[in-house]
Every structure is written in C-alpha cells, then in structure tokens.
Amino acid sequence: MRPLTDDETKVLFEKLSKYIGRNIVHLIDRPDEPYCFRLQKDRVYYVNEDIMRKATPIGRKNLIALGICFGKFTKTGKFRLHITALPYLSQYATHKVWVKPNGEMPFLYGNHVVKAHIGRVTEDMPEHQGVIIYNMADVPLGFGVSARSTVDMRKVDPTGIAVFHQADNGEYLREEDTLF
Amino acid sequence: MDVSGILEEHKNKFKSIQVDRLIPVEFDLGLLSCFDINMLDENKLKSNPTTRNNYLKELAREGAQLLINELFSLPTTIDEDSYYATLPKPTTVLPREKPVPKEKPMTRWEKFAKIKGIQKRKSSGKVFDEATGEWRQKYGFKGVNNDDQKPWLIEVPGNADPFEDQYKVRREEKKERIEKNKRRSQRNYEERVAVEKGIKPHEMRKRELQKALVMSKQSTASLGKFDEKLKGEPKIKGVKRKFDPLVGSADKEKSKNMEILNKVNKGVTKSTVLNVRKAQRAMNNAKRNKK
C-alpha cells in the first residue's frame, strides 16, 4: 500500500472527471472525515484515513483490500474504473441515462444500451461522455460512455447503440473471482 | 462637324490621370510599389465612415494612378500580341525571412590549411584523356581516378608476393581510402556537434564511449551481472522510485491532490468551456422567438 504518485493521481483524476466533472473536489475535501487514495497491487482504493492507518501493519502480500476499490491501473499505465466505484460516481454524476424496465436486464448482462431502452437522458450530453446508468426507479445500474450526443440520439434508429457498456452491477456475479 | 463637344463629354466620364502631390511620391517599380509620405487629412479620417472610406479610396486610386503612369513611361518590348514593360531592379531591401545561418566550425583540414597557408585553387572537374581524345571527369562515374583498376596487365612490384592478385590489391586500397575518408568526415561531424554543444570534443567522445559501454554491459541475459569488471568502469546508478510517506499529514496530501485536480480541470475546461450545441440551440431559439 502506498499513496499515488503525481502522474498516477493525474491519470486517476482525468478518468474520474469524465464521469463526475468538477465534483472530484467533494471526494478529496470531505467535511466529515479525511479520506485518501491508496494504491495496493495496482488497485486504487478510496479509504478513510483512520482505516488506512489501521491497515499499515499488514504486509503488502497479505493485504487484500481496504476501503472502496475505484479501479486499477493497467500495465500500460491507464486507469480502469471498476463497478465498485459506482456509489460515488452515481452520487456526483454530471450526465445520467435512465433505462426502461425492459432494458435493465440486457444491460446488467453486459450489453450496450440501445436507443429503444432509453427512458430519459440528461440534457446537453456530448458525444463520448462518461455517463451513469440508472433504472427508472433511480437505482444506479452501472456506467458507460455515450455513443451519441443528446441531440443526435433522436436520429438514431431504435436498435442503434446509445451508450457503450463499461461496467454494470452484474459484474459482482460475473467477475466475482477477479474483481476483488 | 464639330466633335469637340462629344470629346469633352467623353473625357469628363473618366477621372484625370494627373495627380498632384505636395511631396513627390517614391517608386520602386521592380516591386510594383509606390510610397506616399504625404500627411493624411486628419479631419476626414475622424469624420463619419462614408467620408472616411471615400477619402481612403480616393487616396488609393491616386496612388495606383501614379504607379500606372510611371509604368507606362518604362521602355517596352513588343511580343506577338502584347506589350511588355521591362521593370527595373528592385531598390527596396526586404529583410530576409530566416536568420543568417551560423558559421560552421572549421574541419581539421581547413584548420591545417589555414596554418600552412594552403589556398583552394579553382580547377575544372574535367581532364583531357589523350588516349581516347575525350574530356573525362576527374572523379566519380567514368572518372580518371578509376583508371588504375583497369589495365590489362599489372607489373608485380619488386618486393611483392608474386602470387598475389594485384587487381585485388588495388581494389582494396581504393576501398580503404574511401573508408578512411568516411571516418574523417564522421570525426569532423562529431567534433562539430561537440563544439556546438559547448563541450570539448574529446570529453564528448569519452561520454559517448561510457554510454556505449553501459549499454553493451547491460545487453546480456543477466543484465551484465556476471561480466568481468573493467578498469575504471563507471558505476551504473538506476533511477530509484520515491514515494510519499504512507502515513503523512492528511492536509498536505489533500492540498497536493487539489493542486493536481486544478491542473486537470484546466485541461477539461478548455474543451468544455463552450458547449457549442447548447449555444447553437440558444441562438436558434432566440431567433425563433424574434419571429
């Protein structure tokens, strides 16, 4: 376990800003308790400072996880968000997509969101923007990247892809072995 | 029949080619330009746009008129169907686009020649070949310098091995000469680079050599671990990664993160500061509302 270097922090923030924009501030500067980002075996954990201090005596090999895993650094140095980051992403999301009940299961099985399944979209969403996907009851299901802007989405035929799948809650079952 | 009236009328349709200027205008006909240093009328410049525009247009017309008057006074040549005026050479000196190239440092030969006072003599690149009665190049393709490779018979020199191929000897000698020349020019180039960098040439060579040594040492399967150590071999120092302390002050970490975040946000705002689509829509809506 170690703090992130400047470069790593930059990569992480750049990725997060695609989903929550300037709201990263609320992750760093919390009014309740100090939280921090820590790297353990390529994974980035968002963890309470107090818990992090308690985890320090545990060796690198023995420490499995702490706090909430935001994602991991690939071997090429990119950052990949994991589904476990969803609670924080959905809390501060800038762009959202609501999926109709008939589109929930296809998405939760790892498919892209087609236009026919979209119930509602936030206004002024640009193309290739990170979006959080909710069902109509406002339960976050996962996140992805918008394939079209809000305006262009009207022109797409119903079977056309509207949001590219990146992570969904189904991964808790599908990727059970590798996720943690 | 009196046509003077018609002529007068025709004349009045066009502006006069006579232009009066207080200070005579300067011309540079080679560049098809004229320079007017007369004062501008400030009252007209500061008045309403139409008079100002008319004034400026008039000035431009008069300048062009003067230039064209001058062009017509130039000597002309007549081609099949058109007249050509021959322009004089430009007198205005234009500044050059690129900076003056830096002077290259002298090569070793040039230095030597300067000390010895050897001067370059201009000579033609061709030599008269009496055998064929033709002019031939001194060097290069079909050059005279290749002649020593050609004769059908070569006498074996006194102290040479009689079974040696004399053609091969000559061929190899020539190859060696070429190689040597290449090495010299490479050395000149390296020395020039060193001088431009402000390092002494032999220092530079030493540095390069050490770099090559380190590279070659590391190029074994065991990264040079079992290689024999050379005398005076430089010690290789790797870059050691340094991380912040795991449990540092929380405030410090927070402020550092905020700093990085600000930098990231700057990049983000640059691309997202103007939502073009939103702006377009707002414009269209405004237009529609007006109608």
TrEMBL record, chain A:
Transmembrane region(s): none
MF terms (GO), sorted A to Z: RNA binding
InterPro entries, per database record: NIP7_N (IPR040598), Nip7_N_euk (IPR055359), PUA (IPR002478), PUA-like_sf (IPR015947), PUA_sf (IPR036974), Ribosomal_synth_fac_NIP7 (IPR016686), UPF0113_PUA (IPR005155)
Gene3D superfamilies linked to this entry: 3.10.450.220, PUA domain (2.30.130.10)
Pfam families hit by this protein: pre-PUA_NIP7 (PF17833), UPF0113 (PF03657)
BP GO annotations: ribosome assembly
Keywords: Nucleus, Ribosome biogenesis, RNA-binding
Primary location: nucleus
A Gene Ontology term for the protein's cellular component: nucleolus
Subcellular location: Nucleus, Nucleolus
Protein's UniProt keywords contain Heme: no
Domain of life: Eukaryota
Free-text function comment from the UniProt entry: Required for proper 27S pre-rRNA processing and 60S ribosome subunit assembly.
PANTHER family linked to this entry: CYCLIN-DEPENDENT KINASES REGULATORY SUBUNIT/60S RIBOSOME SUBUNIT BIOGENESIS PROTEIN NIP7 (PTHR23415)
Protein name (record): 60S ribosome subunit biogenesis protein NIP7
Automatic annotation (TrEMBL), chain B:
Region (Disordered): 173-198
Extent of the signal sequence: none
Keywords, comma-separated and alphabetical: Nucleus, Ribosome biogenesis
GO CC terms, sorted: nucleolus; preribosome, large subunit precursor
InterPro entries on file: Ribosom_reg (IPR007023)
Pfam families membership: RRS1 (PF04939)
Principal location class: nucleus
Compositional bias per record (Basic and acidic residues), positions renumbered to this chain: 187-198
GO biological process: endonucleolytic cleavage in ITS1 to separate SSU-rRNA from 5.8S rRNA and LSU-rRNA from tricistronic rRNA transcript (SSU-rRNA, 5.8S rRNA, LSU-rRNA); ribosomal large subunit biogenesis
Highest taxon of source: Eukaryota
Cell compartment(s), UniProt: Nucleus
Segments passing through the bilayer: none
Family, as annotated: Belongs to the RRS1 family.
Function statement: Involved in ribosomal large subunit assembly.
Protein name listed in UniProt: Ribosome biogenesis regulatory protein
Species in which this protein is naturally found: Coemansia asiatica
